[in-house]
Amino acid sequence: MNKKITKSKNNRVLTGTLAGIAEYFGISPTTARVIYVIASIFLIGAPVLLYILLMILVPNAKNEPKTAEPVDGNTWNDF
User: Fold this and answer.
1) Taking the model in full, what pTM does it have?
2) Whole-number Å distance between alpha carbons of 76 and 58
3) How many domains are there within the chain?
4) Is residue 4 part of a domain?
5) Which of 8, 18, 29, 55 is the most buried (most CB within 10 A)?
6) 19 found inside a domain
């Protein structure tokens, strides 16, 4: 199994880097973001530089064509 770290294409907040790392390690993206914020507080902003570096180096996930979902004729019932 050849697993690579890529930016998440589904769970993006800023660039998808933290979510991609979380998907690679099999943890929740929210957990990865909380760990990042705590590390940024205790390490006096050093993870910000690491994030910028990872944002540049981690490749985007390969795009798959999106398929349209069928829509029911009665779509006005949510107003």
Assistant:
1) 0.68
2) 42
3) 1
4) no
5) 18
6) yes
CA-CA-CA-CA dihedral for 12, 15, 19, 23, to nearest 10: 110
Which residue do the tokens 């999106």 mark?
A: 66
Cα–Cα nearest to 23, from 10, 34, 35? 10
Question: Which backbone phi and psi does 7 adopt, to 5 degrees?
Answer: -70, 145
With CA atoms as reference, report the closest residue to 10 among 59, 63, 50, 51.
63
HSE (side-chain half, CA atoms, 13 Å) at 46: 4
Q: Are 13 and 33 in contact (CB under 8 A)?
A: yes
What is the residue range of 50's domain? 10-60
Are 54 and 17 in contact, with CB atoms under 8 Å apart?
A: yes
Q: What is the pLDDT of residues 7-43, one digit of tens each?
A: 888 888 888 899 999 989 999 999 999 999 999 999 9
Does residue 50 form part of some domain?
yes
